Amino acid sequence: MHLPTQTIRLIKQLELHNILLVEWENALLNRLGYPLIVNSDLVFLVPDEQLRIVEQLAADIGYHAADRKILPPKYPSEESNQGLRYIIQDPGKSCSRVVLLPLSWTGISPNEVVSLSAAQNKLPCSVYTVSVSVACTAFVRIASREKRGSKLRMEAICALCGVITYHFFDTSYEGDYYEIPPEDQPLSEKEVLEMTNAVNSLKEWEMREGEEWIRSELIKAMTGATSYDDLPCKND
Predict the structure, then answer these.
(1) The model's pTM
(2) How far apart are CA 12 and CA 48, in angstroms?
C-alpha cells in the first residue's frame, strides 16, 4: 500500500502519542473475508477521549478536519457525521483521506480489540482489529439506530451481509459466471451443512446482557426466516 508522505507523518505522530487505532471499513471487511479493494484511504475507530488529541496532533502538522462540502462522504461511516475527516495530498500526486471515528459510535469497547501482528500489519504504526462476531454485532447496532431506508443503515446491512456470506459460506463457483438458482430450489447437502455450521457458530458468539436479540435476529436473517432489511430500526 502506497501512502502519501504526509499521511505517514500523521499516523507516526498518532503512534508516538499512543493513539489506539482500530481498522474499519474496507480494511476490516477485507480481513474478515469480504473481498473489497483497499487503497491509500485510512479509516480508524479511536477511543472517544483520544479524538481531541488526534485533532490537535493533526493541526500541529497543518491539517484541519474537512467538512462535507470540501470532502464529500465516500465510505458508509462518513454518513454518520461523526469524528474527524482529513484530505491529505503530496504535491503533484493523488490525494487520500484519513477518517477517525469515535469507538463508541460502534458500541465496540477497547477490551474487544486485538493487535495485528507484524505480518498482518502493512502500516508504519500499531493497528488493532476486531473479530467477525464483534464486527457483525456492531453493524447491527449501527443499522438499528438508523431510520429504515437511510443510506447509512443500508450500507451497514450491506457490510453485514457481505461479511456473513463470505465468512461462513463457499462463494466460489465454476465457469465464467454464477447462475442464480431459482428461489424454490432446495439447498444441497453441502449448503445445508454450511448453514448448520454457521448457525452453530453464531450460537457460540458471546453477547452482552441485553443484546442477545442481535444473535437471534442474525440467525433468522441468515437462515431466510426473515430478511436483513427486517432488522430493527429507529422508527419501529
Answers:
(1) 0.90
(2) 19
